[in-house]
Write a structure and sequence with these properties.
Structural class: alpha/beta
Radius of gyration: 22 Å
CATH class of the largest domain: Alpha Beta
CATH architecture of the largest domain: 3-Layer(bba) Sandwich
CATH topology of the largest domain: FAD/NAD(P)-binding domain
């Protein structure tokens, strides 16, 4: 049998490989990655600076260790040129490889908005270990950082910068943070707590341009960030955290069905019988799930299917934890299309508890903030 090829060496790719090897000891696994193949926790990138973690310290297992433990062939530093699903071949900068089954764990790219200004190309973003190394070097001498985006990653970075003694200013067009995940009352609780800790919020406006400082205004800082409301923020660094976009170009070019992500069925299979996808690049029933628990769940199921036991991906309730120590959050969003209402069950300075119930009164989602996050395990058991 031709090898199983896995494209991507992140959590998704390595978990599929590790789980597959539990069921199949002999089939060759080839992992193709444009990185060096070291294994690290990507979610830690947004809260590692305050802990003074170096890029090297974030690596939990070097590539050589992963190769030995899983017994796979690693093609590091390889750029993927294309996929021929008819011939079951993958073209890379290191050669062409045949596969029996192909697993796409491609990840996602940061969304890059078009900004004006002579320093727009100096805006940083952090999406991998190399990005983090560059960010860590630049931010080490900064006193102020403008963070573009008040979503999950933007809020986590803002809290991390605070903990490192750096003053963050967060710019977002919405009225409160985390609008994609939280109802307004919970978002306002996060806003208030982080503001009290030192975050400056600039809501209801957007970044228009980033320019290098010329010294004419007498303010400190290397950059001037011009906002749509006419104000200008002086800063030492600008970090963009406006979201991720699933990597779908290769799949689209190969003729696979693509929507927001690479569309997969209940087995993690794409529109081609021999190609699977998971992680940040995949779309499950219209949803992209760029979180750890969905990745682990999908990887285990796909590994069993690859080993000859078709196994549907059955996502359990998977609350999302937001790493903002100033006011932590655990949220179980209701599934898209489920009608219902949010109600505040507990509201106090120490934290909020919000419950989402459907039209039958069944609990479908929740938000816990602050001290209330300790109730996560108990409330998950009550979900319908």
């Amino acid at each position: 049998m031709e090898p199983v090829i896995i494209v991507g060496s992140g959590l998704a790719g390595y978990t599929v490989a590790r789980e597959f090897r539990k069921h199949d000891k002999t089939t060759q696994i080839i992992m193709i990655t444009q990185d060096n193949g070291d294994f690290y926790s990507k979610p830690m990138l947004s809260n590692a600076f305050a802990q003074k973690k170096t890029p090297e310290q974030l690596v939990s297992s070097p590539a050589a260790t992963m190769v030995e433990q899983i017994n796979l062939t690693l093609l590091a530093g390889a750029k993927l040129g294309g996929i021929d699903v008819a011939k079951r071949q993958v073209d890379t900068s290191l050669g062409r490889y045949d596969y029996s089954r192909l697993v796409l764990a491609l990840g996602a790219d940061v969304v890059r908005l078009p900004f004006g200004g002579d320093a727009a190309d100096e805006i940083l973003s952090v999406n991998d270990l190399g990005d983090y190394a560059h960010f860590r070097k630049k931010v080490s001498s900064a006193k102020r950082v403008v963070v573009i985006g008040a979503g999950l990653i933007g809020c986590e970075f803002a809290n991390d910068l605070l903990a490192a003694g750096i003053a963050p200013t967060v710019v977002d067009p919405m009225s409160h943070p985390l609008t994609a995940l939280l109802p307004e009352s919970a978002g306002l609780a996060v806003k208030s707590a982080l503001q009290a800790a030192g975050v400056e919020w600039r809501f209801g406006t957007t970044v228009q341009a980033v320019n290098r400082a010329d010294g004419s205004d007498g303010a400190d800082g290397a950059y001037r960030v011009a906002l749509a409301d006419g104000s200008v923020v002086a800063t030492d660094l600008v970090l963009s955290a406006v979201g991720l976009r699933p990597r779908t170009a290769l799949a689209r070019e190969a003729g696979l069905t693509v929507n927001r992500g690479i569309v997969v069925d209940s087995l993690g299979k794409t529109s081609n019988e021999d190609v699977y996808a998971l992680g940040d690049c995949a779309e499950y029933e219209g949803a992209v799930l760029p979180y750890v628990l969905p990745i682990m769940t999908a990887a285990r199921a796909i590994a069993q299917t690859l080993a000859g036991t078709p196994t549907a991906i059955a996502f359990p309730h998977m609350p999302v934890s937001i790493k903002t120590p100033a006011h932590p959050v655990s949220v179980q969003p209701a599934k898209a299309g489920v009608a219902g209402t949010w109600e505040i069950a507990v509201s106090e300075d120490a934290g909020l508890k919000l419950l989402f119930t459907d039209e039958t009164g069944t609990l479908r989602g929740f938000v816990l903030t602050g001290a209330r996050t300790v109730e996560r395990a108990a409330i998950v058991k009550l979900l319908g």
